[in-house]
Write a structure and sequence with these properties.
This protein is an alpha/beta fold. About 40% of the residues lie in helices and about 25% in strands. It has two domains: about 60 residues, Winged helix-like DNA-binding domain superfamily/Winged helix DNA-binding domain (Arc Repressor Mutant, subunit A); about 180 residues, Rossmann fold, CATH 3.40.50.1360. The chain has a seven-stranded parallel β-sheet with strand order 7-6-5-10-13-16-17, with helices on both faces. Strands 1-3-2 form a three-stranded antiparallel β-sheet. A three-stranded antiparallel β-sheet has the order 11-12-15, covered by helices on one side.
Length: about 260
C-alpha cells in the first residue's frame, strides 16, 4: 500500500511539472481540486520539487523555474531534422550576390549545408567557424572569407579580440545567427561570455539579422545575454513552436517564420 502511494505521488509531481510547462504558475487550491487530495499533500509535493530546483514556491502556489542551458564540448555536431528545416527556410530568404556573416553552431552548420544544395549564386561569406568555412570552400563557388584567430579549445571556431576587431571592419547584408537559449521576456543567450561578444558584433555589422532557433530552445536561459528579443529582424523556428509563444513574440515586434 505504501509503495502504491509513493508511485501515485511521483505521478502527481510529474503532472504538476507538466502543467507548469503549459501555465508557468499554479495555485495550491486548483491542484487540490484537480487531484482530489489535501492542501498539505500538494504543499509537500511542491516542497520536494523545489528541493530539486524544479519549481519555486510562492504564496498559495508555485511558478516554473527557468530552464538554464549549459555548454558541452561538441564531440559530434548533430544536425537534427528541425535544424535542417530551419536552415532551408533561412537559405530561401537570400538574394543572389548577398554578403553574409555566418555564426558558429550546429544550426549555422545546417545552414551551410543548405547553401551547398541551394541554387543561389554569387554569395560573399564571412565566418569564423572552421567546419563551415571548409564545407563551403570545398563544395560551393561562393567567395569565402575565414576570420582567423585563436581556436577555442574543444570547439571548431576562432574567438577572442582578434576575431572581434576583424569583424568590425566589415558590413554585410545579412547575419545568420544561432542561439543556445531564448527567453521571450529577456532575449537571446549563450553559456560562454566570449561567444556572446562575437554574436553582438554580428548584430552591429549586418543590415538584416536572421536568428535560427529550434522551438525546444524557447523558454530557456543561458548565462550571458547577447541581444534583446526585438533586435532580430527575422526569427526562424520549427513547427513545434507553441501558438501562445508565437503570439507573445509577435507582440514584442518580432517577425516569426516557421519551417
Amino acid at each position: 500500500m505504501e509503495e502504491n502511494k509513493f508511485l501515485y505521488a511521483e505521478e502527481r509531481k510529474a503532472e504538476i511539472l507538466r502543467l507548469l510547462e503549459e501555465q508557468e504558475r499554479l495555485q495550491v487550491m486548483d491542484l487540490v481540486e484537480l487531484f482530489q487530495v489535501s492542501g498539505s499533500t500538494i504543499r509537500t509535493d511542491m516542497r520536494e520539487l523545489e528541493k530539486e530546483h524544479l519549481l519555486t514556491r510562492t504564496h498559495g502556489g508555485a511558478i516554473r523555474n527557468p530552464q538554464r542551458s549549459f555548454e558541452d564540448k561538441p564531440k559530434v555536431r548533430e544536425l537534427t531534422d528541425e535544424k535542417r528545416q530551419i536552415a532551408r527556410k533561412a537559405a530561401s530568404l537570400l538574394n543572389e550576390g548577398d554578403s553574409l556573416v555566418i555564426d558558429t553552431g550546429t544550426s549555422c552548420l545546417a545552414f551551410a549545408e543548405a547553401l551547398v544544395h541551394s541554387q543561389i549564386k554569387g554569395l560573399r561569406i564571412l565566418t569564423y567557424d572552421l567546419q563551415i568555412a571548409s564545407m563551403l570552400s570545398e563544395e560551393t563557388e561562393h567567395e569565402i572569407c575565414f576570420i582567423g584567430g585563436i581556436i577555442r579549445n574543444g570547439f571548431q571556431y576562432t574567438s577572442g579580440e582578434m576575431v572581434i576587431e576583424t569583424l568590425r571592419t566589415f558590413l554585410v547584408d545579412k547575419a545568420i545567427i544561432g542561439t543556445t537559449s531564448f527567453s521571450i521576456e529577456k532575449g537571446y543567450s549563450t553559456p560562454n561570455v566570449g561567444t556572446a561578444e562575437l554574436k553582438k558584433i554580428l548584430f552591429s555589422i549586418a543590415r538584416q539579422k536572421l536568428l535560427l532557433c529550434e522551438s525546444s530552445k524557447i523558454g530557456k536561459e543561458s548565462f550571458k545575454l547577447f541581444a534583446g528579443t526585438a533586435d532580430v529582424d527575422i526569427f526562424i523556428t520549427d513547427k513545434g513552436v507553441k501558438e501562445t509563444e508565437q503570439h507573445s513574440m509577435s507582440a514584442k515586434g518580432l517577425t516569426v517564420l516557421t519551417a
